[in-house]
Amino acid sequence: MRLLKRIIFALYSRISNLIRNGYLRSIDFKIQTSISVYYRIIGYWEKMNRVDFYSKMTLEDLGLNAEEARHYGGSRSYELAKVVKRLNLPSDSSVLDFGCGKGAALYAFSKFPFKGICGIELSDIAYEIAVENVKNLSLEKRIQVILGDARSLKKELDSFNVFYFYNPFPPDVMKTVVQNVIDSLKNKNRDGYLIYNYPIDSVVIENFNQIKFMFQYVPFFFGGAIKVYKYNKV
C-alpha cells in the first residue's frame, strides 16, 4: 500500500511539473491524463484488495428511482483527506455518511481517528457491496454500514457531529435529512459539521439559517467542489 501511494504521488508530481513547465498545454489533455492515471492505479489497488468502490452504478443498477436518490459515484480519498485535515475536528468526532453507496468515503474516513464511522445506504445492492468491501479491508471494527432510509434517522443522529453527503439525494429528500440533523444538533446542543461533495443542491443547506458556510475545496484535476458548513451550538 505504501509503494502504491508513492507511485501515485510520483505520477501526480510528474504531471504537475510538466504542466507548470508548459509541456502540457492542452486543458483536455491535462484532465484526461490525470483522470486516466488515477483510475488505472485505483483499479489495480481494488483488484489487489478485492474491493469495488469506483465502478459506477446507475439508479436502475441500484434498484432505486430519481425521487429518492441519485446515481452512485465513489468519493476520492485524497480530496476528503484535504477537507478533514483543514477542519481540525474535535478528538471525539464521529462521522455519518448519508447514502454511503459502496463505502468509498467510509474507507477514506477510516484513515483518521474518528471515534465512530457509519454509513447508511438505501440500496440493498450497494449495501451488500459496502459490507463486503469493509470485510475485505478488515475494517469491521471501525466501520458500520446500515441498510435503510436516511430520512428515518433521528435519535440515531445524536451519536455524530460530522455528516457527509456526496450528492446522494434530490432536494426534497436532502431538505428532510438536513432538518433532522439540525434538530439533533439543537436537542443535544453540540457543534456539527456538514460536508457536501459535488454540491449541486447546496441552496437546500444554505436556506437553513442555523448553518453557516465555512469553506470550499476545489480539486485541481477533477473539478467539482466540496462545501463545508457548520452548525454552532448555542
UniProtKB/TrEMBL annotation:
Single GO term (MF): methyltransferase activity
InterPro entries (UniProt xref): Methyltransf_25, SAM-dependent_MTases_sf
Alphabetic keyword roster: Methyltransferase, Transferase
Domain Methyltransferase: 95-187
EC nos: 2.1.-.-
Pfam families tied to this protein: Methyltransf_25
SUPFAM superfamilies per the UniProt record, alphabetical: S-adenosyl-L-methionine-dependent methyltransferases
Gene3D superfamilies: Vaccinia Virus protein VP39
GO biological process: methylation
Name recorded for this polypeptide: Class I SAM-dependent methyltransferase
Organism: Leptospira ellisii
